[in-house]
Automatic annotation (TrEMBL):
This is Single Cache domain-containing protein. It is found in: Cell membrane. It comes from Azospirillum thermophilum. The keyword Cell membrane applies. Keywords: Cell membrane, Membrane, Signal, Transmembrane, Transmembrane helix.
């Protein structure tokens, strides 16, 4: 019986090592906040057209590991999405998460009382291809809402 127990230990250790790279690719809340803050400053400095071009570049400086920048205008239209640049110009004002909760409306609400905040929702993680809990750090910059989010599942 002791031999069977010992043979399980290497298997468990091997499985743990397989899971480590997936966890290592996950961004932290601090990284999401830093990216959103950097993007808001870039938008303020360069203006909406140059910022949208930079944010919409999936291989650019504003896409890092599982993080990307997204921007909505005051009406809830996508200005940029590093995850899917084709969304630019589309109406996201009624966008809801996998549990039916409003996303963009919640982001707009949280930035009414404060220039920044965090919104939690359930969203497709394109890295894992699973629906997971996501927390997006959002910043109001003029008439725009700039954000980046990390997954917690």
């Amino acid at each position: 019986m002791a031999r069977m127990s010992l043979s399980i230990v290497p298997l468990a250790a091997g499985l743990a090592l397989v899971a480590l790279p997936a966890l290592a690719d996950r961004s932290t809340p601090e990284q999401a906040k830093a990216l959103a803050t950097e993007a808001a400053a870039y938008l303020k400095e360069k203006g909406p057209a140059a910022a949208a071009a930079a944010f919409n570049d999936p291989k650019g400086a504003f896409v890092r590991k599982d993080l990307y920048v997204f921007v909505f205008d005051s009406k809830g239209h996508y200005v940029a999405s590093g995850a899917n640049p084709k969304l630019a110009g589309t109406d996201a004002s009624g966008l809801k998460d996998a549990e039916g909760r409003p996303i963009v409306a919640s982001m707009m609400e949280v930035t009414k009382a404060s220039p920044s905040g965090v919104v939690e929702y359930v969203w497709l993680n394109r890295t894992s291809n699973k629906v997971e809990h996501k927390h997006s750090y959002v910043i109001r910059e003029g008439e725009y809402l700039v954000g980046s989010g990390y997954y917690s599942d």
